[in-house]
Design a protein that fits this description.
It is a single chain. By secondary structure, the protein is of the alpha+beta class. It folds into two domains: 36 residues; 132 residues, Sandwich (Immunoglobulin-like). Helices cover 31% and strands 29% of the residues. It has four helices and nine strands, in the order αββββαβββββαα. The chain has a nine-stranded antiparallel sheet. A hairpin with a 6-residue loop joins strand 6 and strand 7. The longest helix has 27 residues. It is elongated. 16% of the residues are buried.
Amino acid sequence: MRLGRKGWNNVIIFSMLIMIFFLNGWHKQFLGGEGKPALQAVLPEQSFVLTLKFVDQKIERIGTSWRTTPLQKDAPLIWQATEQQLKDLVSYWQNAQLMGVNESVVFNPNSPLYVATFELAGESLPWVYLLYKGAGQYYLLEKNSQRILALDLSTAQQLFPSFDFSQSESN
């Protein structure tokens, strides 16, 4: 069986593709690139936040500005914020980069400290983030993908300004 010029070109092309495939896989396994935790964006890139809801209040976009309303009737807002502070809070969530956690983390999944729910433009389901504390560290669980991100106290305070962290520190 003899191959013509076209046949040999196809053999060379497919052998090069197979070689690239195997070398690429070997490269990742050899350097161990996938096992290391890395910084991950909390919200999807270029996300457009319509609403941010905490347990006690709702922050919503009204045109180009933001407003906050209590979720329980006749309840005062715990965190009184200016429009600029609301804008900064949403911006902080959009730009936050946290360390992904690969190993099993010690916290009680049935008792989150606080919850943040985002409604994003173009998304049919809300993005739900649960704040936990375990082993002296705070963790953020993204409910839909079960992704766990580690954060320190100052970052947690910036992401959840209406939560009283002094109560969780005593536990």
